[in-house]
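User: What would this chain look like folded?
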Amino acid sequence: MTTTVALVTPHYPPRIGGVERYVARLAEALAADADFEPVVITTRHRGKRTQVALENGVRVIRLGVWVRVSNTPLSPLWPFQVRRWLRRTGAAVVNAHAPVPGLGDVAVFVSGERPVAFTYHAGTMHKGATGSGLANRVIAVYERRVLPRVFARCDVPVPAGPTSLAAGLPGARMIVPGVDVERFTPGPADARRRELIYVGRMDRTSAWKGVDVLVEAFASLTDLPDLRLKLVGSGDAVADHLALAQRLGVRERVEATGALAGEELVRAVQGAAVLVLPSLTDAELTGMVLMEAMACATPVVASDVGSIGYVVNGEAGLVVPPGDVPALAAACRKILTDPPLAAQFGAAGRARAEAVFAWPLQIDRYRELFAGLAEDREPIARA
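Assistant: Here's the prediction, encoded as structure tokens.
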């Protein structure tokens, strides 16, 4: 018998982000499995009316949004709408995804008798100095008062990394992000450029990504005048980062490509000398882009936040204190000026990506989880 799984996530492609890609990969894998039928419940980018469409073989239900607070979409209709769609689709299992508050929390509380797996993709979302005082206070209240109740209501907390706020809870089952090791592969050795690459969001509300720290570190590498920096991604802060590069005198060596996907993204990661993830807070849990770089045998340099140390594991590159411009620059220089070390990091990263982070490993864990949750429950009829 086919088990219908409702994957509930605040954002979903074409919006680009780690959580979005994680849920999309899971949904598409379940759609190809005769034992499961996925349905995604998410939000619209604009508009208040519900939209339903088949996207890459997956039924996607996009609920309307009444207001947005920073990166958080909200609507007072969601409790009624989510309950109705769970009933109409015959969902037997609910898998909600966070940390963006709102939709996932609603799904947990209106799931009724359906078993719930709640996948939490972050440590604390407190933004530190990069966030407003009001935002940090709201996050503190949510994490202290609301989130524990959400975790208590779900059947299985699923931390997406060892420092997720869901880690260590009773019954927790860690399922980390994955990487397509058949698509992200090492490119020709002679194709690598003298280039640092960053891949990710560049929104002003995501200042915790630390892109300004990377630009400053790049500008300080005056002993490597042929080095270039490629910023891959979109957002309203791209112009700010380029203006900083202009002030620091390195604008002509910084390229902002906009968002890349598919083979364009693979080639960009394959061709870089080092991929850098300079995040400043534990809101960055595992960094899927690190796994993609590792699969491409591209050495990485990343901040020691969230579960980054677990991902890199001392094998695929170097980890530095967050916000430390000299340390970030020194780590990049070390790899750029030591080809044998770069090759060692690249080979070890590829091996770890295959052994630990390949998507089939993570998908199998979800199949086992969903099958177990549905096993002892009565089938739920479609309305």
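The longest helix spans residues 133-153. If you want, I can go into more detail on any region.
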